[in-house]
């Protein structure tokens, strides 16, 4: 019986998901989850890593109106990252920015770009610094 109720609820809510598909344009806050993370270095190729191993949050809260990105977990103490540039093209929302990192630590700053598919919410985040690059594949949901 529970399976049937779950199926009926899923079917009833399905149109809501379709109606929200165009909402990935940055006009509403989003929660994005990192699913597959890669770290790349010159001459060493890329390897799969965890969010913890590269000091990245598992979830990001993107607020297009405030132009900020924050770690979404309540135990995160990272400051908000400012979105410097936001544009839409080829059915994607593209956000860009840069972070200086920790004061006094060399190689800690990163320039980043996030591409979010306007229809599906699928996300690719790329970040690069001195002698390192990161590629994070994930998905976003409207919150």
Q: Find the CATH topology.
A: Porin
DSSP E strands, number: 10
- Provide a count of the helices: 1
- Run of helices and strands: HEEEEEEEEEE
The share of residues in extended strands comes to over 45%
Assigned CATH class: Mainly Beta
Average residue pLDDT: 83
Query: Architecture in CATH?
Result: Beta Barrel
Name the overall outline. Answer: globular
Summarize the amount of helix as a percent range: 10-25%
Q: What gyration radius follows from the Cα positions, in whole Å?
A: 17 Å
Q: Please state the structural category.
A: mainly beta
Biggest sheet architecture: 10 strands, antiparallel
- End-to-end separation in angstroms reads 30 Å
Number of domains: 1
Unreliable spans: 1-21
Detailed description of the structure:
The chain is mainly beta and 143 residues long. It has one domain: Porin (Beta Barrel), CATH 2.40.160. It has one helix and ten strands, in the order H-E-E-E-E-E-E-E-E-E-E. Strands 1, 2, 3, 4, 5, 6, 7, 8, 9 and 10 form a ten-stranded antiparallel β-sheet that branches. Strand 1 (30-41) and strand 2 form a beta hairpin. The longest helix is centred in the N-terminal third of the chain and has 18 residues, at 2-19.
Provide keyphrases for this structure.
disordered N terminus, mainly beta, Porin, 143 residues
SSE blueprint and pairings:
Elements lengths: L1 H18 L10 E12 L3 E5 L9 E5 L4 E4 L9 E2 L2 E5 L2 E8 L10 E8 L4 E8 L2 E11 L1
Antiparallel strand pairs: 1-2, 1-3, 1-10, 3-4, 4-5, 6-7, 7-8, 8-9, 9-10
């Amino acid at each position: 019986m529970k399976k049937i109720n779950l199926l009926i609820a899923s079917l009833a809510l399905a149109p809501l998901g379709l109606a929200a598909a165009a909402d990935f344009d940055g006009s509403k806050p989003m929660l994005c989850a990192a699913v597959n993370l890669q770290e790349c270095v010159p001459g060493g190729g890329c390897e799969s890593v965890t969010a913890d191993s590269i000091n990245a949050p598992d979830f990001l809260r993107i607020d297009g109106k405030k132009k900020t990105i924050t770690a979404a977990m309540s135990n995160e103490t990272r400051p908000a990252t400012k979105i410097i540039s936001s544009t839409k093209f080829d059915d994607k929302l593209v956000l860009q920015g840069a972070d200086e990192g920790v004061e006094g630590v060399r190689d800690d700053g990163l320039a980043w770009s996030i591409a979010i598919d306007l229809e599906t919410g699928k996300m690719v985040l790329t970040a690069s610094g001195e002698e390192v690059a990161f590629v994070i594949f994930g998905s976003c949901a409207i919150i």
